[in-house]
Specification:
The chain has eleven helices and ten strands. It is α/β, with parallel strands linked by helices. The strands form three sheets. It has a four-stranded mixed beta sheet with strand order 3-4-6-5. The protein has a four-stranded mixed beta sheet with strand order 7-8-10-9, sandwiched between helices. Strands 1-2 form a two-stranded parallel sheet. Helix 2 runs antiparallel to helix 10 (about 210-220). The chain starts with a strand and ends with a strand. Pfam families: DUF1858, DUF2249.
Length: about 270
């Protein structure tokens, strides 16, 4: 199999899951998270090699070299270039709309509505230049399903992600529907009472993406089916919930007075 820095982790695992995980754990202990089936089957769909290296603190070249040792063919670096649209010029057709969400995140606020409003206001000739302190993996996954291409650059501790409409991109159902994110099962207070002696609690409000998703998945994998997970979250994790429902989990939510969200995740 030929791979590049943009190859999804899920594609590597399809070829030889055990060999890939073994090789990556030897390369960097942070990849041991791939041993977690729930985390592996959820996050690996969204993350490519480049994103995984950014998350694990691993050099992309070292990752690709490790894959060579177990039979993968790495595309020549001369052709494995990062795709960036041209810079705006007065004579050109393409223009950047820049959106820096670092100040919003610094205030512990969620910029997702502003991002979506901005990108939906663009014409097909425009490119959104998004500046953030981390790579926006769930956003990339969602917009890819809406027909947007992207590229990512890291500069001085920030991630610059370019989004533009790709007429050749196939659209999918990457945006969660209301039925996927609507609370199912018992109400919040009833669940809290039912699981009061079997309730594990975690607080992900101050973690940067995708760490909240990782922490939730790691805890669920460790828990017996008769326990529930209470999560202090800063928002509803809309891109995680459909994956949890696929695996038999239900959830209930409780908005807080400060605009954040409490969740109970459980198996009925």
């Amino acid at each position: 199999m030929v791979i590049t820095r943009k190859t999804p982790i899920a594609e590597l695992l399809k070829v030889d899951k055990d060999a890939v995980i073994r090789q990556l754990v030897e390369l960097n202990p942070n990849f041991a998270r791939l041993k977690n089936p729930l985390l592996r089957n959820t996050l690996a769909r969204m993350v490519n090699i480049e994103s995984a290296c950014n998350m694990a603190g691993c050099e992309i070249a070292a990752f690709l070299d490790a894959m060579k040792h177990i039979g993968f063919v790495v595309q020549d670096q001369a052709t494995d270039t990062v795709q960036i649209r041209p810079q705006a010029t007065s004579a050109g057709r393409l223009f950047h709309r820049e959106l820096d969400v670092r100040p919003i995140l610094a205030q512990k606020e969620d910029p997702i509505k502003l991002i979506l409003q901005t990108i939906h206001s663009l014409s097909d000739e425009h490119t959104l230049k998004l500046i953030a302190p981390f790579e926006p993996i769930p956003l990339i996954h969602m917009l890819s399903g809406k027909g947007y291409a992207h590229s990512v650059q890291q500069e001085e501790g920030s991630f610059i992600t370019y989004f533009w409409k790709d007429p050749n991109a196939a659209k999918s159902q990457a945006t969660p529907s209301d039925t996927q994110t609507k609370p199912r099962g018992a109400d919040f207070e009833s669940l809290a009472l039912k699981y009061k002696d079997r309730l594990r609690t975690i607080d992900v409000r101050n973690l940067e993406m995708p760490q909240p998703m990782i922490m939730i998945l790691e805890n669920l994998q460790q828990m017996p089916d008769d326990e529930a997970l209470f999560v202090y979250h800063k928002k509803l994790p809309v891109y995680l919930l459909p994956h949890l429902q696929e695996r038999g989990y239900e959830h209930s939510t409780q908005p807080t007075e400060d605009g954040k969200m409490n969740l109970i995740i459980y198996k009925p």
